[in-house]
Design goal:
CATH superfamily of the largest domain in chain B: N-utilization substance G protein NusG, insert domain
CATH architecture of chain A: Orthogonal Bundle
Distance between the termini of chain B: 51 Å
Number of helices of chain A: 6
Number of domains of chain A: 1
Largest sheet of chain B: 4 strands, antiparallel
Largest sheet of chain A: none
Largest interface: A-B, 34 and 37 residues
Structural class of chain A: mainly alpha
Order of helices and strands of chain A: HHHHHH
Strand order of the largest sheet of chain B: 2-1-7-6
CATH architecture of the largest domain in chain B: Sandwich
Distance between the termini of chain A: 7 Å
CATH class of chain A: Mainly Alpha
Helix content of chain B: 25-40%
Helix content of chain A: over 70%
CATH class of the largest domain in chain B: Mainly Beta
Number of strands of chain B: 7
Order of helices and strands of chain B: HEEEEEHEE
Radius of gyration of chain A: 16 Å
Oligomer: heterodimer
Structural class of chain B: alpha+beta
Strand content of chain B: 35-45%
Shape of chain B: elongated
Number of domains of chain B: 2
Radius of gyration of chain B: 18 Å
Bound molecules: zinc ion
CATH topology of the largest domain in chain B: mini-chromosome maintenance (MCM) complex, domain 2
Shape of chain A: globular
CATH topology of chain A: Arp2/3 complex 21 kDa subunit ARPC3
Chain lengths: ~170, ~120
């Protein structure tokens, strides 16, 4: 990106996309209400896109802005730590896996989906002081994988159709 | 390209195997519990026997949850939290099973405190 203004506008637009996707996701009926935290991870489509088209910097910035906005609108201090932990772990692992160059967009996205749930569980164990929450881990691992596959394919489509677009 | 696809499949396989192992671990370490332990903010607030039908309203500065124990199962029947995830959670009865209300920092667990 050429200059600061362009960069700011760009990050703003993509943050808005990510926030809209969070909102859309919150409107969808829960897939399986017995287990908290099962989500499609739609905003991760934007994060994957930024990670591949630009760099970890853009992906992390937008991820953080989205998280902060969503928590300010719908959450509290607890959900902030919970979401932050998921987002940081997910983005770090996706970034590292992408760097190895051994996995496709879908593989990277799957690792992101699983780590997002894992990070949230780890935060919940510390915040609530109960290790029994680990009980949710198997089902959240599988749901993270399924969500990651979906998000990965969406990411591929998005990357493909914007390949010629100059930002 | 092809080897990346293979690596993806391998990654998914490893993840699923780990999930399966965890699932089996939890499944076989579960026994039918006999106590309902309610904790707020990581500290045990109440312990109630699972075989006595009761309705308990748990209040804290974060909010209120109503826990119903009936017929050997426990569930949260109402709460004033924002997400209502705890209310939608199915009833629990087996050792280690948990209902969490994250906004209220409330955890309901069957037989939770035995080891500690
Ligand atoms: Zn709740």
């Amino acid at each position: 990106m050429k200059n600061t203004t362009q960069r700011l506008a760009f990050l703003g637009v993509f943050s808005a996309f990510a926030i809209i996707l969070s909102f859309v996701e919150s409107l969808l009926p829960p897939i399986w209400s017995a287990v908290p935290g099962i989500k499609m991870g739609l905003p991760n489509i934007i994060i994957i896109f930024l990670l591949y088209r630009f760099s970890i910097k853009e992906a992390a910035t937008v991820s953080f802005i989205r998280l902060l906005t969503v928590v300010l609108l719908f959450g509290n201090a607890m959900t902030f730590l919970y979401s932050l932990s998921g987002a940081v772990l997910s983005l770090t692992v996706m970034w590292l896996l992408k760097k190895t160059n051994h996995f496709s967009v879908v593989g990277v996205s799957i690792s992101g989906g699983v780590c997002h749930n894992l990070g949230q569980i780890i935060a919940a164990v510390f915040l609530l002081g109960t290790k029994e929450i680990g009980f949710y881990m198997p089902v959240l691992t599988v749901s993270g994988t399924v969500a990651g596959i979906f998000v990965g394919f969406c990411g591929i489509i998005l990357l493909k159709y914007t390949a010629e677009f100059k930002f | 390209m092809k080897s990346r696809f293979k690596n993806d499949i391998m990654l998914v396989s490893i993840i699923l195997v780990v999930a399966l192992i965890l699932f089996l671990f939890f499944k076989f370490s579960l026994k039918t519990g006999d106590m309902v332990v309610i904790s707020i903010n990581g500290e045990t607030a109440f312990k109630l026997p699972l075989n006595t039908d009761t309705e308990k309203t748990v209040k804290s500065e974060l909010g209120e949850n109503v826990i119903l124990i009936k017929g050997g199962i426990a569930q949260i029947i109402s709460a004033d939290c924002r997400d209502k995830i705890c209310v939608h959670h199915e009833a629990i009865s087996k050792s280690g099973e948990t209902i969490v209300c994250l906004p209220h920092k409330l955890v309901v667990v069957i037989n939770g405190e035995e080891e500690t």
